[in-house]
Design brief:
It holds the Pfam family Integrase_H2C2. InterPro entries: Integrase_H2C2. This is Integrase zinc-binding domain-containing protein. The radius of gyration is 13 Å and the shape is globular. The protein has 4 helices and no strands. By secondary structure, the protein is an all-alpha fold. The structure holds zinc ion.
Amino acid sequence: MSNTALALWAHEKAGHGGRDATIAWAKARGVQLSVKDVQTCIAQCETCQLLKRHPYLDQPVGCIWQGITGGEVWQIDCIGPLREHR
Ligand SMILES: [Zn+2]
C-alpha cells in the first residue's frame, strides 16, 4: 500500500476529518502519516470535494451520514470512539 493510499484510508476512516484530525486518528493507531500525503489525499478526496461544494451536507464526525435526497451515499461505517475534531 502506498503512503497516499494509507493516508486516504485513514482519512476516510477518520470520517473525512481535516488534515490534523486524520493525522491524529492514524497516530492513535500507531500509523505515522506525512502531512504531505494527507494533504494530497484530502485534495483528491471526492467526498470532501462534495462537502466543499455543498457545505450544508457537512456534519460532525461520528454522526451517521443521512441522505437528504434520493440517491445520496449513506455512510454506515462504525468509526468510534471519536474525539471532538473542531
Ligand atoms: Zn474526504
